[in-house]
Amino acid sequence: MVKKDDNKPNFALSKENYVLMAIGFGIIILGFILMVGGRSSDLNVFNADEVYGWRRITLAPVIVLIGFLFEIYAIMKKPKGE
């Protein structure tokens, strides 16, 4: 018969999961930071090249998507002890 320590709480996720989730959150934040910008100093001028640049339209959303996929992996990953 295996004796469990009743004083120790059983969490659904391990420390490793939380660390991976923090990394995924950082990746998502990086993607949103890459989307920022493109504002013109003159309010009457629309700077289309800056707003619709490759970084804001392609790179940043892909990084955000990778971050969300990494979050799913971090939640679903089983602890090594089990």
Automatic annotation (TrEMBL):
Keyword Membrane: yes
InterPro entries: DUF3098
Record's keyword terms, sorted: Membrane, Transmembrane, Transmembrane helix
Protein origin, superkingdom: Bacteria
Name of the protein in its database record: DUF3098 family protein
Pfam families reported for this sequence: DUF3098 (PF11297)
Residue ranges of the TM segments: 18-37, 57-76
Source organism of this protein record: Breznakibacter xylanolyticus
